[in-house]
Model the fold of this input.
Amino acid sequence: MDKVFEILKDVDNDRYVFLHIDKSGICGLNFHQGVTEIVWAYAEPDVHLTEIWRRLALNYPHTERSFLIEKAIDLYIDAFITQLLKL
Done:
């Protein structure tokens, strides 16, 4: 069992990104805004964000990992957070 947990500090976008990685690559993804402190409640992978990332990675296999992660988060925000604000 070789699962790795990685935390990325994305200062440019003011967020922490949580990666769950196994032998096949990223198997879970989540994030939270704000880099003042880590909120461990967001360390568990988000099913929807992980699926968005997975589909991007399948369709763009030669694209840099960090770009795909950033794009997946942007799409997730548009689909799940921004839409709620419009209600």
